[in-house]
């Protein structure tokens, strides 16, 4: 990757070398309205302190672009559960990208061969945007964005449970895995959100020439590895239950979604700056 970052705003390290890495749905974004409004104060604070805020979710590149624009975020971001990382180019024109394991084309190729072996499924690549919209509840426009993929394929299983187990085994032979979510099974490389976090940590350590501490925020089971890999973990309570996590620097937000994100991050930053100034 060509990393000429001379004019990037974060080329100069913040007073405290911190990076925030966050899940989106149910964490920075409200579970129902998808709004980040309640986190505005903390987002502004990060900008003032020159601390990067890296979005790390299962969303696609195009979905992330839209959100970054809405929230005026200019930092690197991690898509599709750690599958792909995008770092804005210093000239403001596009991104340097890094696929951590398997590219979308490589995944589609494996799926094609498995289908020929008789496995039955329908992936996003087999569906029109209208079909994806009907299945996900997204608008047709947003479904179109969700169909532009970099490193994973959601699919609906139409075979038997036994065949699904065989399919899972077959994927392993190709160094792919199956992550089963609510509506879809996701075929992806052996990456997770923690790989995205580590990539960003190394990115800023190289850029700032010093060790970096990472604050991670998340609410779901698929955030567990990312939270564990962070120096400071903030668990946002989920709708149904709150993730149970063992971590030496753990904070559990008292509110769900962006309100909890805002309050807990602000108080952690406050404590870290107090601690730095008293030492
Ligand atoms: Mg979430």
Automatic annotation (TrEMBL):
Entry keywords, A to Z: Hydrolase, Magnesium, Metal-binding
UniProt keyword annotation of ATP-binding present = no
Q: Which Pfam families match?
A: Hydrolase_3
> Could you state one GO biological process linked to this protein?
mannosylglycerate biosynthetic process
Q: Does the keyword Oxidoreductase apply?
A: no
Q: Name one GO cellular component term.
A: cytosol
Q: Name one GO molecular function term.
A: mannosyl-3-phosphoglycerate phosphatase activity
Q: Report what the protein is called.
A: HAD-IIB family hydrolase
Q: To which species is this protein native?
A: Thalassolituus pacificus
